């Protein structure tokens, strides 16, 4: 917060308060409660990678806390749930109440790009300077999965690729879901087709293996986390609208 002073034409001094967060986010929509979830997700990701870089071995009978950390994807999954929750809210709000602002695709994609592209490309540039691995960095710049081809720097890049895939699919799904009966039925049909394919792969153990990085890391495999976030957002809005 910054305080600034000025004078009116009559000479009276006026002190105003400037919130540095103004313009960065809509404070009326900002959910401070989710900061705890973000912090937990960050901590879990940090501890997992710190554990991996150490020489410590997981005990044969680990505690629940160690199992949570060693699971690896716990923190990342929580981030995906948060993305599903937060990014679907504007569409769900507008669908529930037409007086709420309608999400604009241009503003949506601009916000998503500004959130991840600048820092991600800086990381890619530093990786290229340190490794000289032009081919891998070029593929990563196009948001392709590169796995461990620029180890250790590329270990976490897959999460951004998955997020970008979700960013592209979410508006399509939200528009179909909120445009009426037939578009919603089409959306349901697509979800059922995905669920059938997903269940088939799970039953045959493909998603539990490391045979296909695309299958295990893409939005196809991580969709349950995003869907949990979206469904949670819908339930949360219903609870807010319910009479006290």
Task: Write up what this structure looks like.
The chain contains 9 helices and 2 strands, in the order ββααααααααα. It has a two-stranded antiparallel sheet with strand order 1-2. It has one domain. It has 244 residues and is mainly alpha-helical. The N terminus is likely disordered. The chain starts with a strand and ends with a helix. It comes from Haliea salexigens.
Indicate the percent of residues in helices.
55-70%
Number of strands: 2
Bulk shape: globular
Q: Biggest sheet, strands in spatial order?
A: 1-2
Radius of gyration: 22 Å
One letter per element, helices H and strands E, the order comes to EEHHHHHHHHH
Largest sheet: 2 strands, antiparallel
For the termini, the CA-CA separation is 35 Å
Give me the number of helical elements: 9
Structural class: mainly alpha
Protein name: Acyltransferase 3 domain-containing protein
InterPro entries: Acyl_transf_3_dom (IPR002656), Acyltransferase_3 (IPR050879)
GO molecular function, one term: acyltransferase activity, transferring groups other than amino-acyl groups
GO biological process, one term: polysaccharide biosynthetic process
């Amino acid at each position: 917060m910054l305080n600034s002073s000025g004078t009116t034409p009559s000479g009276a001094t006026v002190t105003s308060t400037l919130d540095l967060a103004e313009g960065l986010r809509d404070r009326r929509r900002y959910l401070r409660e989710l900061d705890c979830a973000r912090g937990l997700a960050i901590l879990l990701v940090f501890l997992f990678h710190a554990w991996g870089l150490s020489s410590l071995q997981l005990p044969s009978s680990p505690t629940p806390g160690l199992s949570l950390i060693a699971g690896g994807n716990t923190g990342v999954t929580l981030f995906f749930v948060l993305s599903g929750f937060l990014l679907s809210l504007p569409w769900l709000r507008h669908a529930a109440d037409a007086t709420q602002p309608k999400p604009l695709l241009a503003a949506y994609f601009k916000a998503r790009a500004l959130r991840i592209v600048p820092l991600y490309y800086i990381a890619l540039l530093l990786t290229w300077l340190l490794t000289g691995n032009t081919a891998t960095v070029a593929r990563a710049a196009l948001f392709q999965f590169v796995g461990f081809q620029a180890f250790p720097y590329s270990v976490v890049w897959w999460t951004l690729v998955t997020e970008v895939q979700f960013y592209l699919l979410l508006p399509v799904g939200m528009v179909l879901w909120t445009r009426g009966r037939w578009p919603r039925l089409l959306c349901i049909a697509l979800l059922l087709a995905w669920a059938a394919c997903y269940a088939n792969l799970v039953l045959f153990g493909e998603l539990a293996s490391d045979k296909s990085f695309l299958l295990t890391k893409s939005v196809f495999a991580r969709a349950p986390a995003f869907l949990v976030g979206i469904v949670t957002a819908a339930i949360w809005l219903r609870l807010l609208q319910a009479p006290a």
